[in-house]
Amino acid sequence: AIEQAIAYLPPNSVLLSFDEKGKTAVKEYGGQKYVFRGYYHVPYGQKVKGVCDLVSARNIHTGKRHYWFYDWKNSFIIIEVLEKLLEIYPTKNLYIIWDGWSAHTSHHMQVFLDLHPRIKILPLPIRASWLNPIERDFSKIQRFVLNNSNFQTVNEAMNAIGMYIEKELYSN
């Protein structure tokens, strides 16, 4: 179904890859780097300065990223983000690729989706979240922004992630 949506999206529609990078820890990655079998490894047992959740959607056809930061994530946060996406695309039907996280399948979410027929869900198979294109963005954010960082505050980390999304991911 996802391949068909990518290739044959109905007119007046947008296809969004949607997911949450949950509990992103802002850590001090100032430890000694060492090479093991050609890879750099960073010790992870370090003090956490705070956490944030990144909720993001990528327009599959244009590459445009939409993202928001929250202190936590649940079905009410996801509904809030879906409302924002409906505002961003006021005349389009939204086809959304997402995984089977419980907040995506909650009763509150089902009621919201029933009340908003412009949103069409393309669920990923169980244990196949890696098929979601947005996961590649999260991997790059972890690798190029968070790893080996030493952000002093959560806001500093969020600004760096936002800048990376705007400058690097969107331009690719």
Structure description:
By secondary structure, this protein is an alpha/beta fold. The chain is built from five helices and seven strands, in the order H-E-E-E-E-E-H-E-H-E-H-H. The chain has helices at about 1-5, 75-90, 105-115, 135-145, 155-170, and strands at about 15-25, 35, 40, 50-60, 65-70, 95-100, 120-125. The chain has a five-stranded mixed beta sheet with strand order 5-4-1-6-7, with helices on both faces. The chain has a two-stranded antiparallel ribbon with strand order 2-3. Helix 4 packs across helix 5 (about 155-170). The longest helix is centred in the C-terminal third of the chain and has 16 residues, at about 155-170. The radius of gyration is 17 Å and the shape is globular. The model has no long low-confidence stretch (mean pLDDT about 85).
